[in-house]
Amino acid sequence: MIITQHLLGVGDDAFVKAFIVNIQFGAILSVVVLYWSRFFQSLDFYFKLFAAFLPSAILGVLLNDLIDSLLESPQTVAISLLLGGVVLVFIDKILNPSKEVLITFPKAFVIGLAQCVSMIPGVSRSAATIIGGMTQGLTRKQAAEFSFFLAVPTMFGASALKLYKGFNEHPHVFQGDNIFLLLVGNAVAFIVAMLAIRFFVGFLTKYGFRVFGWYRILLGGLLLILMALGINLQIV
Fold this sequence. Notes:
The chain is mostly helical and 236 residues long. It has helices spanning 2-7, 14-34, 36-39, 43-62, 64-71, 74-94, 105-116, 125-135, 140-169, 177-207, 210-228. The protein has one domain. Helix content is 78%, strand content 0%. The radius of gyration is 18 Å and the shape is globular. It contains 11 helices and no strands.
């Protein structure tokens, strides 16, 4: 989304920053719909989600301004794509649990720590948390589903923080057509995610991360080449 924003020449005002964060919540809401019966479980399940959510919630508040500044850097995104792709290409050879395990509070907290890495623009939140889960013995499918569950409070918190900050600092841009754009963006993200999540879980379970890794390497490498050739990807 950050790279597309640059390529389209979209500005970097308060509304755009809020939009980029907020529409991800529309995608995550599809998780609640797709996993309705599993998402509404026991209190123990929610306590574990909270344990995983807590690290990113604390760092998100403390590092909000730094994260905003990194969002303005296509170089950061390109390098993150490239390095993250290298990790994904080889991670299946290092981590590939085959038997489901019980997700405990310590395991949930470690997954939450892994999620903090995704605060760097260009780092996949899903990949970070899935790999974090696999280091704790979770299977690909188990880690992917927990990653989606964890995304709900995480993206709700990120969206709420960004909107709250935007309303307080720039209340004039959060009205009229801009509110409509937020609603449309979330609706589109919701529909697309509904179509993609089932495919993603099935593909990841069967084939692993390798394809996603090469995709990130090619995209990150292409962006770095474009910038090296002097093509301006900075926000206008």
